[in-house]
Structures are given as C-alpha cells and as structure tokens.
Batch of 2 targets.
Target 1
Amino acid sequence: MDNCIFCKIVAGDIPSSKVYEDDQVMAFLDLSQTTKGHTLLIPKKHVRNVLEMDESTAQDLFARLPKLARALQKATGAVGMNIINNNEEIAGQSVFHAHVHLVPRYDQNDGIKIEYTTHEPDFNVLGKLAAQIASEVEE
Ligand code: 5GP
Ligand code: ZN
C-alpha cells in the first residue's frame, strides 16, 4: 500500500536488517531494539492488523512464529521472550501494517513491565460475557 512504511520495507525501498523472508512473510529487526534482537514479523501482504486479517494470512504469519522465536533465542542467548501484537492506536499500534513483536528477555531487572490488572472475578458476569463473545465468533 502506498505510504505504508512496512510495505516499503517489503519492496526493498527502505532498508531493513532482515532476519527472515519467504513468499508470505518477512522478519526484520525493530529500529527501537527494546532489548537486543527485538524483531518484527509481518505478512508481506498489506493488512491493517489482526482485526482485519483473514485466516489464511494469519496461518502464514503465526505459523512462522515458533521457528523464528527459536532462532532468535539461539542467536541471542535470551532466557525468554515476549511476543506482542498491538491492534489500533488505543492498544499501542503506531504502524498500521500488521506485525508481531518478538522481544527477547535476558534479565529480570531490565525494567520492562507487561502487566494486566487483576480484579476479583464475578463468575456470573464472566459467564454472560463469555457467552456473548462466543455468539459473535464467525463460522
Ligand atoms: P507498534 O507500535 O505499531 O506495535 O510497533 C511499530 C514498531 O515499528 C515500533 O516498535 C517501531 O520501533 C518500529 N518501526 C517503525 N518504523 C520502522 C522502520 O522504518 N524500520 C524498522 N525496522 N522498524 C520500524
Ligand atoms: Zn503495508
């Protein structure tokens, strides 16, 4: 897509530190290097994010994650890894071509915090919400 920075990377119009490429996907180092080896995995086909992704693109994209994650771990000696995907601005998406972050983790005191607030569960509310979501799942 015109003016999409990641489409330009796929086309080779903008340089990137490429880690992996095949017919469907590409992976390259994130400029920000949150930790050493911070990598982005993207579908070559332009799609905004997971909320707009079809199953076949998702299969192509997410199927590559384990081998890429293992390569990254072997190459860097990371102890673990966060795999993160942001959808829409409210969730932290700033580049609107779908991508998955692989963030290798080395040290408990690296200052990175990914926290979800925990609430006392109301199982009645949870049950209703689960049913509501279930009814929206596409065939
Ligand atoms: P988001 O915030 O959308 O989940 O992540 C976008 C990521 O893309 C950011 O971590 C940012 O550092 C990275 N990024 C933005 N522009 C470029 C670029 O031109 N090249 C590379 N390699 N990474 C980029
Ligand atoms: Zn794009």
Target 2
Amino acid sequence: MRYSRFFLPTLKEVPAEAEVVSHKLMLRAGMIRKLASGLYSYLPLGLMAIRKVENIIRDEMNRAGALEVLLPIVQPAELWQESGRWDHYGKELLRLEDRHGRACCLGPTHEEVITDLVRKEVRSYRDLPLNLYQIQTKFRDEIRPRFGLMRGREFIMKDAYSFDRDEEALDRTYQTMYETYCRIFERCGLDFRPVEADTGTIGGDVSHEFMVLADTGEDEIACCSMCNYAANVELAPAAVPPASPPAAAVSEMKEVATPGKRTIEEVTALLNVPACRLVKTLVLLADGKPVVALVRGDHALNEVKLKRVLGVNELSLADGETVRRLTGAPVGFAGPVGLTKDVRVIADAALESLCDFVTGANKEDYHLMGVNWGRDLEPPEFRDIRVITSEDPCPRCGGRIEIRRGIEVGHIFKLGTKYSGALGATFLDPKGRQRPIVMGCYGIGVGRTVAAAIEQNHDEKGIIFPVPLAPFQVIITLVNTKDETMVQAAEDIYRELLGHGVEVLLDDRRERVGVKFKDAELIGIPVRITVGKKVKETGEVEITQRASGRTALVRAESVVKEVLNRLK
Ligand code: ATP
Ligand code: MG
C-alpha cells in the first residue's frame, strides 16, 4: 500500500472526548471515527487490525471443529418471549417494530436464534456434538457507552454456541473452548488471564472470563499469589473473619448526636471509632422493591452477589424519598434498629461476629453506639454480599490475594439446558428417548480485543502493535521523494517485500521526514525501513524496531532477508 493513496487521517492533538489511552490512540492513528454515542466507523487501518483478530479467531475456532454461520441481526420478539428474556433483558435490548407492527429487537446476543435453528434441524444423537459460531455486529443499548471500541453500543463479536448430548460431553467441549481461547489470546500477543466469573443475564452455572491485564480495565480480578486461583471480584467469595476476641456486648446502646455527619469518614472521625465497627445501611430497590443491605464500614457492597441472593435482575440505590419513607430519616442516618418488618434486611456475613457497633439511628442527625445483635435488634439474614479485598485469604488455598485490573475480552459459559429447555430443542438418544440438548456459549469482543492490545502495548509516541495484530508489518520511510536513487531503492524494497507476502506501507508522501517518522510511530508498525542519504553514500538503509527503538544499518540488497528474519 502506498501511503499517498491510503486513507489515514492521523491527528496531532489528543481528542478531548477520549479518556483512556487506547481510545485516544485509535482516534489519533486514524483507525476509528465516532458517528454518535457508542457508534463508530472503522477506517481502513482500524478495520485491518480487526480483521487480524478475526482471522486468528476463525483459524482457531475452525481448528477446534467449530463451523462458521451468519445469523440475522434483527430477531423476532416471539423467540425472546419463549426464552423468557423479552421481559428480563432490560433496556440494553433495542426493541423495534416493523411495518406490520411486529415486535422485534436488534440482537445483543444469539442464544434464542441459534437454539431455534438447531431445534428445527437436529433430530438424533448422531447429529451431535455441534459447535456453531459467527463473527457479527451486535447491538446493546449500553447505559454508559465509553472508551471507544471498549464499550460501544454497536460492536463486533465472535459468538459460538455448542450443542452436546449430556453434561459430560459439554464438559469436554467447554474444556476445548477454554484451551482455544487461551491459544487465541496468546496468538494475539496479549498478557491475559482466564478468571472465574458471574453468569449474568445469559444464565447457566459455570463461566470464565478472559481478562487482558491493564490498569485501566473496568473489571477487578482477585488473583492468588500462591495458587492459580483467579476470579472476578464480582464472584470471589469473601472470607468471614473469625470472631476473635469472642464477640460479647460490653456497652449499653445509646443515641449520639452526629449533626450533618453522613459518610463513614465523617462519623468515624467524630465518634473516634474505626470504620470496621460501623455498620453501613444501604437502602436499595431490587426489581423496584425496597430492600436493606448492611455491610461493615470498611467493606463494599457487592451488587452481583446481592442480586444472586435476592434472585433479582435490577438493583439500584433507592432515592431520598424512599429512604425517608422507610427509615424516617434522610440518607446518611439509616440503621437496622427499629426498621419496619415489611422490608427484607440482608447483612454481610462479616457482621455476624460484630458487637458494640455504630449505626444510623433512623433519625436525622443521630447515630446509635454500642449496638448488639439479639439484645437490641433481631439478627437479620447473614450472607456473603461484600467485595473481596486484599486483606481476605484466597478462597482456595488461604494464600494472599492481590486485586488487579483487567479488560474482559472473552467470556465462556456452560448454559446447560436453559435455552434448549425453554425452546424445546431436543434430540433422540440411542435408546430412542427424547432429551434436551446441553448447550454452551462462547463470546469474544473483537473491537475490544484490539483496544485492549493497544492499552497494553503503547508508549508516549503511540501504538506498538504486537506483530500478529499489526495492520502492516513494515513501513518504508522514503526520506526524499525527489531523489531518484532513494525512490528507486525504496520501490525495489517495496516490491520485494510484497513478493514475499509482507504487508508493507510505503510512505511516499511529499512530507517532511520528521512528520513521516511521527506518523510511523503513532500508527505502531513493528518494523520501519528508512531509505535516506546513506543509500547513496554506502548503499545502506536503516531498520528500526518500533518496540525497542533500536536501529541497525543494513545493505539495501539484504534488508528484505533481515526483515523477514525479524518478523519470524
Ligand atoms: P461486560 O461485562 O463488559 O458488559 P458482558 O458480560 O456483557 O461484558 P458478554 O455478553 O459475555 O459480555 O459478551 C461477550 C464479549 O463481548 C465480552 O467478553 C466483551 O469482550 C464483548 N462486549 C460485550 N459488551 C461490549 C460492548 N458494549 N462493546 C464492546 N465489546 C463488548
Ligand atoms: Mg454487558
């Protein structure tokens, strides 16, 4: 490709709308442009990187025996009603009506459509196992689209669905997909970790997320420093601290004035008690109904765990009005003592051994001190509803837990018979009995993978593409487009590289060489060949490695051989 004929609008300025480095660099490198919130156009350079990821995925999925299909984006509401998700998916599902008034939606995922296909075609155990995948545009009306391709509304996903005769066969397929995912992300050149994960709205029982490790990641992962345990903090069980010294009440419960003090910091400072002796009272709406959650002042509520305990889909903090109606006090002074019996109260398990604690008094500007379960209030239901911390032991081996950040690029699930049961996708087993097909599903965010690769591989000058994802492997910087010897040498190297199947960009623009260097660094091409004055003086050109910045002089005739070696 000749740069002068390429569509590569690079930007010098850092775009104000971008918060994370991958988003900034993808805009600056002319890979993407925003159309509207969460909607992006892929420009040639961006699309080339996306195709690289797609090709690696295709290659590995095919090798694992999966078969590529392409399903419709628009899906009829009836299928979603059959699975029960029409009412449960929430606002991320974009619903529309066609000209006949038929309800449909834009596919955020394809469990319903694929299960419908398979229930009509698969008859017998001889048709199984089957693993079908597609690489396609999804639409999710995300509440907060951000970080460019990282969390778009319209985005490219690889989704695969497996169909097996029983749980054992699913276990084998799942294991194959797990290994396939490891190979895919290794081949992309990424530093990643598979972690145990929550199953969310997709459902099912076992799932793993594939996390690219990066400080800017939206997810937190609990990793053990001793064994190989790693889990999303949404899921990681938090230990219950042993009650030592044995919990025993020593104080009387008394009301204390805390005028205007609402936060943990304000109350602990005023009363001179540590945050771990405070009980935080959160009034929430669970599928629209108020519930109260209690956690220790130094712990954080884990909404995913609480949702599971309550068996609800939506959870949000209650508004001030609801808090006042329920507790008789404004936000900041709620507490479990004397709460109405009509509301369900769930306390974190770490609170069970707490005594003489502090909590809101359900009265404006007052807290209670010296509160004790049993004596002052009915003990509530104790469950694990908090976020694990680096002070908790590893749930598997008791080792030290580290909290790291990651970007979820892939997610695999064992679905079991959730969808086949609901939609009636069955097969006849060898004894002629009709049984539901056992399913799994496996997703990869293609655009998010490219963004994550940039998040992990960049410097102050720009992107440093891992070779397998680089849109071009080599850029030839022609220093002077008016010098015939230089032009000839650059053209020769260009043609020779093309002949070897190398993806190469020849920077033949009439630009200052400084501009050319800056662009080459920004767009992150792994190897640069600079054809300048030296080619006339000594017959040499420069090879520069983008990652290390190291430069070597090589004779023009042998530069292609040298480059091929380096790209191996
Ligand atoms: P998240 O928790 O980040 O919203 P998810 O659990 O909803 O992700 P899945 O339904 O498992 O995601 O989708 C499979 C993959 O699709 C994810 O692992 C992720 O890489 C990608 N993905 C999901 N939502 C988006 C989005 N809004 N923009 C870009 N990629 C996405
Ligand atoms: Mg999501």
